[in-house]
Amino acid sequence: MARMHIPSYAVAFVNNIMWFLVVYIPLVLYSPDPLTALYVFMPGVFGMGIASSSMWTSTEFLRWYLYQGLTDMFRECGLGVLHYLLSAIHIDVLIFGVFTYLSMAFATAFFTGLSPYLMVPHNAFYFALAIAVALPTYLLCGSLVGYLYTVTPIGGVWTNIIQMGIMVGTVVPPTVAPDPRLLLLNPATIVAELVRASYSANTLDINTIIIVSIAVIPLYTVLAYLVSRSCEKYIAVHGLKYRV
Amino acid sequence: MVFSLGVVLLPSTISSIDAVINRFNDIMGVSVDITSLILYAFTVSAIMSLTLVVVDETVNTLYQERHLVGVLQTVLESTNLRTYLLCQALVKPLILALTSTMYLAILLPLIAGTEGLITYAYVLPTFVVSGIALGLYALVIAIPITFYIQMKRPWIIANLLVPSLLAGSGLYIPMRLAPEILRLIAQTTVLPYECELLRIMLLQGLGPNVIRFLAIITALLAFYTSVDTWLTLTADKHSRNVGV
Prior knowledge:
The complex is a heterodimer. Chain A is an all-alpha fold. Chain A has one domain. Chain A has helices at 6-29, 34-68, 70-76, 81-111, 124-151, 157-167, 187-197, 206-238. The longest helix of chain A has 35 residues, at 34-68. The radius of gyration of chain A is 18 Å and the shape is globular. Chain B is mainly alpha-helical. Chain B has helices spanning 2-9, 17-28, 34-69, 72-78, 81-100, 103-112, 114-148, 155-169, 180-186, 191-204, 208-242. The longest helix of chain B has 36 residues, at 34-69. Chain B is elongated. The A-B interface holds A 7, 11, 14-15, 18-19, 21-23, 25-27, 29-33, 36-37, 40-41, 111, 164, 167, 171-173, 175-176 and B 2-3, 6-8, 10-11, 13-15, 19-20, 22-24, 27, 48, 152-153, 156, 159-160, 163-164, 166-167, 171-173, 177-179, 182.
């Protein structure tokens, strides 16, 4: 499966870097303090990227594969959306997510006249914790979109709508909210804040983030399991219709 | 729209809006207020939607018409491929340019009242001309992919081309600040000149420089038309010999 997706990963990697250059070069240049701008805004890309790729993975399973009959084949073997997410998690988070984020950060720093080395996380513990939280976040976001896609008639639009929502707290820092802690409800915010913390640019209190991180790892995993099980039950009863 | 707001307003979340405006004015060498800045950002963002729809429609649709839908046989029976392809490259971008930038007709007057409406009136013709030139440019790429090169995943071309062109065109920044390698790729299209043209018209007012960029865009339009006339003729002959 992974081998089949190699060209897609390669294209998505270059494509992501190009799109983020379109936005991040002016974003950094128009900031009075470009380095702070990089440290505050760039980590949001990691959080948002993890959530987005999980949503597209579950969309792939429930939408594109349905058309080719692959979803049915998986389901006949007792494998559902959570299994599919689990089969891709190590590549999407550990390889694609981390590698794309670091490449984007290095490229943006380079093209805005800053040293790319500045974008190497300063605190490895916080960055590792961000990756650890990214794993259950990936499962939860993917399962949620899978469930919404299954039980509602509007299909793929969910992915686009939720992607826009996830921007707030990740690419858009939590400080825009009257109480920034409210944005911890966005699972990707915690991931983004931990990456910000690895540059000492976190906008929320680091102790709060660590406590929340420890709590959400089991919580998101259990939630992802329950949501994906509901999704499976719904498909078993009502079936799944292909939608564009 | 989200991109525009992000580029203009996100830096102000870590400083102040005045600091961002000052920075923008310094980089652009102008003196504008917040309304003009937002008006400019929204207008320029239309280039993004225009490029996305025109390049994607031209490159991917032609490939699908030949390899998936198989309508080109009907085209050959009723007319010739040259007329069909040239009409596609000229008429479709015209419609797409009007529809993809239509939201500006509502948005610009909402932001700046009558001034916004006047702005829309004089930027629309430039979008239309650039859209057609972009359609002709995309046809130069679409013909080899569709008729001469065997590609398993032709969507890769449009997927990578659009963000590369936008990143190299200096969409929200002066072209000199765009990454050099991407700038070279973008300079084969009308996009950087359209961006410069809008920058002059919206930030400095109508002046002699406008004519210079209009002339470059028109010259490129004429060049692409010549190349496409030859390419479509060759594609027509090729299709009649080997079949579609």
